[in-house]
Amino acid sequence: MVPQLISDHFEPMHIDLVFRELGDRFGFNQKAWRKKFEEYLSRQPRTTSEMDAFIKFGNSFINPVLNEILCRNALHATFVKLLFYIVEKNSVPGKKRVPLKH
To answer: Taking CA 15 as the corner, what is the angle to CA 28 and CA 101, rounded to the nearest 5 degrees?
Structure first.
């Protein structure tokens, strides 16, 4: 489950920023992970937005890897916390910036 604040403020540009952060901070192969996401997205119902699919993909496939890297409990919401960080750090210019509280 994704907190309302993420679903309200998550924009398509944030997807690229998440992949960049994963590559820079954790050494993820961005090209390979983007391909995995595109394959996942292509299997989703047409009514599923790219952003919703990305959040589901991240929780299902990226979160376990992050938790393994960080030696955290497998169910820790690391990916959601990463989304909070990315959204808060990169709010869309012109929109009222709302501080995200976790």
So the answer is: 100
CA 25 to chain centre: 14
Give mean pLDDT in consecutive 10-residue pieces for the chain, a chain of 102 residues.
Answer: 72 94 97 98 95 94 97 95 90 54 50
Specify the pLDDT at position 61.
97
pLDDT of residue 34: 98
SS3 state at 69: helix
CB 37 within 8 A of CB 57: yes
In Å, the largest CA–CA distance within the chain is: 39
Burial class for 15, CB neighbours closer than 10 Å (0-12, 13-18, 19+) = buried
Q: Please answer whether residues 12 and 65 qualify as being in contact, where contact means their C-beta atoms are separated by less than 8 angstroms.
A: no
